[in-house]
Write a structure and sequence with these properties.
Among the domains are: 28-112, Tetratricopeptide repeat domain (Serine Threonine Protein Phosphatase 5, Tetratricopeptide repeat); 181-247, Serine Threonine Protein Phosphatase 5, Tetratricopeptide repeat (Alpha Horseshoe); 258-329, Tetratricopeptide repeat domain (Serine Threonine Protein Phosphatase 5, Tetratricopeptide repeat, Alpha Horseshoe). The protein contains 18 helices and no strands. The protein has helices at residues 27-42, 47-59, 63-76, 81-93, 97-110, 115-127, 131-144, 149-161, 165-178, 183-195, 200-211, 216-228, 232-245, 250-262, 266-279, 284-296, 300-313, 318-326.
């Protein structure tokens, strides 16, 4: 049986880059920066103003300038933990891992019980794929604050990343014990069960959707689980709900086409694959599935064309290689 597109996790999960990447400067942002700069002309050694300026520049994605401002803040006041934590965030966004670590170590010298500093250390260690150090840092957060839902969530995700599903589930369940409205924990639990075709995933993903109706990731996981369980009616219903939120969701369009293939509706399937390809013309799975639909229609010429197109994008794509072998080309 041809495999469906797998669920993938978002790499940056903990808000490390929480300020976004919008570089368009609004009039309001410009006015705030101008105001801070005017104040700095009068008080050039005021660390709070340099800190405020760094925050504004970070929001505008001017990271190098923000780093200069936060270093100025630290120059005039080297005992403020907030300055080191912001400096760590900025250096991480600048992919300077060592300086981020150094800033957070300084923060912990100032306050050995700083939950925020240990949390950031966990985030940076995760970013650097130093999972042992990340878990160690999060354990310090939990030691200081035993009911910190975010810390248990981070720990669960770290275990998930290292393939320890048992401990991942244990920590995600702890999250919802602490905070029954923690949407991401329900979603992660649902996705973990869905990957294995376990019906428990339906309950968790449904709860995530109830709490956050426009959560496309949870809806996609639920739709894929229904599809894996061959409950095509409910799968189609969820895919259509996703498309009502985002009409260009290529994975949903592709999977709707795949369901049409399963039901023998090849022309309809091709129309879904075409819609997916309008969104992403390099969507190998959709190209290959389109070829498969043509193959089942005994249109060997078009099937060959699609399989070869998929292989031009990914020369090792297994399904298309097998497709060409089947049609003897």
């Amino acid at each position: 049986m041809r495999k469906l597109l797998l669920i993938t996790s978002l790499f940056v999960l903990f808000g490390i880059y929480g300020c976004g990447n919008n570089t368009v400067e609004s009039n309001a942002e410009h006015d705030v920066l101008a105001l801070v700069d005017a104040k700095l002309k009068k008080e050039p050694k005021n660390p709070k103003l340099h800190y405020e300026r760094a925050l504004v520049l970070m929001k505008k994605d001017r990271i190098a300038d923000a780093i200069t401002s936060i270093r100025n803040a630290i120059r005039y006041d080297d005992d403020n933990i907030d300055y080191y934590i912001l400096s760590a965030d900025l250096h991480l966004r600048n992919v300077d891992i060592k300086q981020s670590y150094d800033d957070l170590q300084k923060a912990l010298e100032l306050d050995p019980n700083s939950v925020e500093a240990y949390s950031k250390l966990g985030e940076i260690s995760f970013f650097n794929r130093d999972y042992d150090r990340a878990i160690e840092s999060i354990d310090k957060v939990i030691e200081i604050d035993p009911i910190n839902a975010k810390a248990f969530f981070m720990k669960g995700f770290l275990y998930k990343e290292t393939g320890d599903s048992t401990n991942a589930v244990r920590n995600f369940r702890k999250v919802i014990e602490i905070d029954p409205n923690y949407v991401d924990a329900y979603e992660e639990l649902g996705l973990l069960y869905a990957i294995h075709g376990n019906k428990l995933g339906i309950e968790y993903l449904t709860t995530a959707i109830t709490l956050s109706p426009n959560n496309i990731q949870a809806r996609y996981g639920l739709a894929l689980l229904y599809q894996d369980l061959e409950n095509y009616t409910l799968a189609v219903e969820e895919y259509n709900k996703i498309l009502s939120i985002d009409s260009t969701h290529a994975n949903s369009l592709n999977n709707l086409g795949y369901i049409e293939i399963q039901q023998g509706n090849y022309e309809s399937a091709i129309s879904f694959f075409d819609r997916a390809l309008l969104t992403n013309s390099f969507f190998v799975e959709a190209i290959d599935n389109k070829g498969y639909a043509y193959e089942l229609m005994n249109n060997i010429g078009k099937a060959k064309e699609m399989y070869q197109m998929a292989l031009s994008i990914n020369p090792n794509y297994k399904n298309s290689l097998e497709g060409l072998n089947r049609i003897g080309k």
